[in-house]
Specification:
With about 70 residues, the protein is mainly alpha-helical. It has one domain. It is about 80% helix and about 0% strand. It contains 1 helix and no strands. The longest helix has about 60 residues. It is rod-shaped, with a radius of gyration of 30 Å.
């Protein structure tokens, strides 16, 4: 095993620092992936709200138009 001597023990400060750095990076990536997985549902909600707003506007315009026709 020619490379066995090149790995430091897990109790050395270098390895401990590496583990902390890796854990922080892994947590940040995990958080970003979680945020990305929530984006499609947010987009879907925005599209639903837009469709609802559009339908409500059309209903209001139709109601006003029908009121105008019946008034004349």
């Amino acid at each position: 095993m020619p490379f066995a001597h090149s790995f430091p023990s897990s109790k050395t400060p270098e390895v401990s620092r590496f583990h902390r750095h890796y854990y922080c990076k892994h947590s940040a990536i995990s958080y970003q992936l979680s945020a990305i997985s929530h984006q499609p549902s947010a987009i879907s909600y925005q599209l639903s709200a837009l469709a609802y707003g559009h339908a409500k506007l059309l209903a209001t315009l139709l109601e006003q138009f029908m009121g105008y026709i019946h008034a004349t």
